[in-house]
Amino acid sequence: MNKDQAKEVKAKVLKEIDITEKTIEEYKEQTKPIALDRAVGRLSRMDAINNKSVTEAALRQAESKLIRLKHVLSQVDKEGFGLCAKCKSPIPIGRIFLVPQTSHCVNCAV
């Protein structure tokens, strides 16, 4: 990976970090406890609890993605960045731009 590509990857990762942080804030807002005094029926309340569980799972995934993105940002300028963690082949730059937190090539990611 050349310096221009590394610069582009950094910009992409920073943008993804910003988007992910905003998403995490939205999920945190949506996963606040459901008040008992809400005037909703039993089924509506159960549906709200189910939706909260789904959002909590999405929140955990987003937090995990944020950790991986921050790790990528710290590794971009280091020797070996852009090489598959398993087979050590270069990861195509298109894959890095599409999924910047990836550490494996397409073949090894399966």
Runs in which pLDDT lies below 50 for 5 or more consecutive residues are none
Shape: elongated
Main sheet properties: none
Find the structural class using helix and strand composition.
mainly alpha
Relative helix content: 55-70%
- Mean pLDDT across residues: 89
Number of DSSP E strands: 0
Strand content: under 5%
Order of helices and strands: HHHH
Can you count the helices?
Answer: 4
- Radius of gyration, in Å, reads 19 Å
Domain tally? 1
Oligomerization category of the chains in this entry:
single chain
Straight-line N-to-C gap: 23 Å
Describe this structure in words.
The structure is a single chain. This protein is mostly helical and 110 residues long. It has one domain. The chain has 4 helices and no strands. Helix 1 packs antiparallel against helix 2. The radius of gyration is 19 Å and the shape is elongated.
Protein topology:
Blueprint: H1 3-30, H2 42-75, H3 93-98, H4 106-109
Helix pairs in contact: 1-2
Keywords:
110 residues, mainly alpha, 65% helix, elongated
Summarize it.
By secondary structure, the chain is mainly α. The chain has four helices and no strands.
